[in-house]
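Subject: Interface between my chains keeps coming out wrong

I've been trying for a while to get a sensible model of this assembly. When I model each chain on its own everything looks fine, but I need the whole thing in one frame so I can look at the contacts. Pasting all components below, labels as-is. Any help appreciated, I'm running out of ideas.
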Amino acid sequence: MSATTLSPAAPTIRVDADPKIGLRGHLRHTGALIRRNLLWIRQDPESMFDAILMPVVFTLLFVYVFGGSIGQALGGGQDAYVQYVIPGMVAMMSMNIAQAVGTGFNEDFHKGIMDRFRSLPIGRASVLIAKVSVELLRLLVATSVVMVVAVLVGFDINGHWGGLFAAVGLSALFGSAVMWIFLVLGVTMKSAQSVQAMGFLVMMPLQFGSSIFAPTGSMPGWLQSFTTYNPMSGLADAARGLMLGGGHPIAHGLTVTLAWTAGLTLVMAPVAIRKFTKKS
Amino acid sequence: MAADTLVGMTRIDNTSASDRQVAVSVRGLVKHFGATKALDGVDLDVHEGTVLGVLGPNGAGKTTLVRCLSTLITPDAGTAIVAGYDAVRQPRQLRRVIGLTGQYASVDEKLSGRENLYMIGRLLDLSRKESRSRADALLERFSLTDAATRPARTYSGGMRRRLDLAASMIGRPHVLYLDEPTTGLDPRTRNEVWNEVEAMVRDGVTVLLTTQYMEEAEQLASELTVIDRGKVIASGGIEELKAKVGGRTLRVRPADPRELRPLAAALDESGLTGLATSTADPESGTVLVPVLSDEQLTAVVGAVTARGITIGSIATELPSLDEVFLSITGQKASTPQDARPELEEVAV
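Reply #2:
Try treating it as a single job with all components included. I did that and got this:
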């Protein structure tokens, strides 16, 4: 092996101070990346449809198909069911944000753009924060649309506007915790489709084995013990308490939701961040 | 001005190259992926304002090397210093002075060309105004102005590579990594990319180029490092290595096919120093002769005409990557393959 072209002396290492990215820098980078994700929506408006259409279809389906019978069990009719299910829909939307961030990341990793970002002098968290911000925005838009539909099918907020905002906030908070799971899936799985399929597999039992669509009282005992600690039940119950007021206890649901939020974040966030930074 | 004298001349001869400052210095670089040693103690230098070609087959460790040098992965051992910054200890400083064009175009396909460049300008802390003007200037330079507002996914393979190169140039990098910049491109598009790279080198950018193609290294690089299985197996100036490999191959076709054997015999008997044995290839009706210099080439032609054999056609060919490996290591490259560029584009 010839080594004729190698210089004998090691080059001098520059020792300028580590240029910390200031707050303004972080905001600039995150802003540029938010713009990117917003341009995606403009390029591909159907993605907005996905986020909005599903909750609207679910609302109409459950209210008009199952609403009458479940309403009777609630001691009313379809009207009683509308009051019951709309807070559930607010809870359900927490999942969309998580799933969208996971699949979006997966696409980035496979397109090579992530290499570009990671070789730029930006905080790596900016990419994530931008994505989460845009998905939060999408959640707000989707929730507003669903609330309009809700009012059209007869939902009565009864002045609990503060409760509605609190419920949406809680839903977004829990969604951000679930997001870490999807980030791990997004970084490790081969394609966006498999992230979606895997997500579906996890989400189905959590969504339907919960108090989102129907009260759990008539479910078999083993399922009830699952629903009691299912965070989606907790979130739906808490949203119900916040949006409907009296007669709907908040404490248990809120405790379950916050416990899961904290637990998932503590366990999954470090795993996701490690996978994200180490991904080669 | 010194820069002016470089215009139109991308190959800088070896002696002046080693007098220059070192822009990239790699020593004993090791990276393992499980049991695979992707890099097994790589040493190399890239001098300021020159192009180092890193030549090797698929799986030789070229991409791993570029990923270590651009802080995408951390090496297990060894040092890499780029423009005075340590890749492991000063990754943030290092990212400010490099540009990276990967094997697959790393642009956002959903964004337009202009939006892609604008975004990178902002991520590199340029002002809004500066980002816009830099984006427009680079679109112009890389002949993408007409396609500036179209989403990048509608671009052809060559346009995408050019956009990718433009993206790497936004921050006026000191050192540019080009990881197989023309793999999967057709010959015409490949030439476009080569022209752009040559223009960047004229501007004084230091380039580390990885490639599988001897022809590409020959076209762009002044020095070469050949790697295989994560190890440097040869390094030096292009001419030096070519001499080692046996330089060009001369393909001579006699006007009369029956004269193929006499032609081969004539060349063998001519006794030119350093001339390896010629081989007759009856299938193509040609004789292959390795030649080291223009003098030898002339001597071969002289020897043939002295025998009264009429030459039908004559052509010189560069050694393929396989031949380079064969002559350096005495064995086939670790993943033998046709070293010619494919004609169809790789889906990205």
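Reply #3:
Confirming on my end. The two ends of chain B are 42 Å apart (CA to CA).
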